[in-house]
Amino acid sequence: xxxxxxxxxxxxxxxxxxxxxxxxQLHGHWRWYRSDGSLMRVGQFDRxxxxxxxxxxxxDGTLVTRSQY
Length: 69
Fold this sequence. Notes:
It is built from no helices and 6 strands. By secondary structure, the protein is mainly beta. It has one domain. Strands 1-2-3-4-5-6 form a 6-stranded antiparallel β-sheet, with no helix packed on it. Strand 3 and strand 4 form a beta hairpin. The N and C termini lie far apart (25 Å).
């Protein structure tokens, strides 16, 4: 996909990741999920480059890491 919302799925149909694409690159806000449906990671891209604050949570929803790019 070159532009628009992209969704990736696990083989069982559960959502794995969702975010936007611009000119074929990851761009804007993205979210990644584990196969059990729990939120794993959130971050932003600017034309394929990580930017801003990225956060990762464990399966219980506890913040594990917060990184700045």
